[in-house]
Amino acid sequence: MKVLSVQLEKRCRSPEEFPRSRLPEVAFSGRSNVGKSSLINALLNRKGMVKVSSSPGKTRTIDFFSINDALRFVDLPGYGYAEVPKAMQEGWKFLVESYLENRRNLAAVVWILDIRRDVSDRDWMLWEWLHARSIRCIPVCTKADKFSFAQRKKGEAAVRASLGEGMNPICFSSRTGLGKDSLWREIHRALASWKTEGELASQDDTGP
Ligand code: GTP
Ligand code: MG
Fold first, then answer.
1. CA 56, 65, 99, 206: dihedral to nearest 10 degrees?
2. Residue 145: closest CA among 183, 185, 179
3. DSSP structure string for 132-148
4. Cβ-count burial of 103 within 10 angstroms (0-12 exposed, 13-18 middle, 19+ buried)?
5. Is the CB of 173 under 6 A from ligand 1?
6. Quick one: angle between helices 36-44 and 180-206, nearest 10?
7. What pLDDT score does 53 carry?
8. 163: which residues sit within 8 A by CB, 6+ positions away?
9. 29 lines ligand 1 (CB under 6 A)
């Protein structure tokens, strides 16, 4: 997709603030500091569009970016950063779950892992939570530039083995642009099927 315009549409601290118009959305989720904001910047070819953290746990709001006035990217706060006070973590959990649970705009969640780390319990919890609700998931292993080609293949294979048949994570690097085209392809697929599902649902609404 040619990214012609990107705007930070809204930074939300509570579900009431989520934008109302019905554009399709792709959300980005993963543990704190995994590289969510950097990945969004890389996809959009905008270096400073989304704030990248110098310290983990930086993104504390749900941030909606409008792209070409045709879709939104949604930067979710990261999970699993132990230094964040418990009450605050609970607040984020509520915010993120409210978003994921009820959002009809949601076409897919990009589920982001660090290629150098094992898939954590929190990652699996999210994966299972999304699957239980039939929310489309796009697995991505980021920071691939930190690995040599051989290490990368090994890391990717380990994630693939734990995800099971047919789930191929996309190896990504915000630094080198590796995986950008593949991820955009998956995003386009998700948007196309979101549209089809929406059309079927509206036919159902008007049916006999
Ligand atoms: P929170 O919002 O705090 O949860 O962090 P985040 O997941 O949005 O991560 P962010 O994009 O802010 O990146 C965290 C750190 O990882 C920064 O220092 C980035 O420069 C670095 N980083 C992100 N992606 C990559 C990557 O692909 N390669 C390398 N080498 N570093 C990366
Ligand atoms: Mg962030």
1. -160
2. 179
3. HTT--EEEEEE-GGGS-
4. middle
5. yes
6. 90
7. 65
8. 139, 169
9. no
Query: Token match 């059309």: residue?
Result: 199
Strands 71-75 and 137-142, by their bridges, are: unpaired
* Joined tokens for residue 21: 């118009």
pTM: predicted TM-score of the whole model, two decimal places = 0.91
Q: Tell whether ligand 1 has an atom less than 6 A from the beta carbon of residue 189.
A: no
Q: Of ligand 1's atoms, which has the minimum distance to the CA of residue 112?
A: 7
C-beta separation of 43 from 183 below 8 A = yes
Name the residue with tokens 């997709």: 1
Range name among 92-96, 120-124, 163-167, 192-196 with the lowest pLDDT average: 163-167
Are 53 and 40 spatial neighbours (Cβ–Cβ below 8 Å)? Answer: no
pLDDT exceeds 60 at position 125: yes
- At 160, list the tokens: 């693939």
Q: What is the best residue among 34, 53, 170 to mutate for testing ligand 1's pocket, by most ligand atoms within 8 Å of CB?
A: 53
Domain ranges of the chain: 6-206
| Second-level CATH architecture of 6-206 | 3-Layer(aba) Sandwich (3.40)
pLDDT of 182 reads: 96
- Distance (Å) from CA 130 to ligand 1 centroid: 23
With a 6 A CB cut-off, is 198 part of the ligand 1 pocket?
no
User: How far, in Å, is the centroid of ligand 1 from the Cα of 200?
Assistant: 38
CA of 109 relative to ligand 1 center, distance in Å: 18
